[in-house]
Specification:
By secondary structure, the chain is an alpha+beta fold. The protein has one domain: GIY-YIG endonuclease, CATH 3.40.1440. Helices cover 33% and strands 16% of the residues. Helix 1 runs parallel beside helix 2. The chain is globular.
Amino acid sequence: MGGGLVYEIKCPCGKSYIGETKKHLHERMQQHERVARGLTGYSAMGKHVLETGHKVEFFKSKVLCYERNELKRKFKEALILRSKQNLVESNSPSVDLLIFPCVEEL
C-alpha cells in the first residue's frame, strides 16, 4: 500500500518511535536512516541512534494504520503516542490533543 500511514520504529534498547507520513514507508525510513548516519534532515529516532550508537533496523518498522486524510492521520498518531510508553525522548505528536477537549476524557 502507498503513503498516508502511522508507523512504529523499535530500538533494541526497548524504546520506540511513533511517526506519521504522507510518503511511502520505505521513503520515510530512508530519511530516518540518513539522519542516523549524520547526514541531512531531522528525525527523533535518527537523533536517538546518533546519540546512543544503537543499531536500529529501520526497514523492519511496523505500519500501525493507514490514513490518507492528513488531519485524521495526525490525530491517530497523537492517540497512539498517548497510549505508548518508553518512547524516544523527543517523540511528540504532530497535533496537540489539548485542542480536542473531549479526548481528554477518554
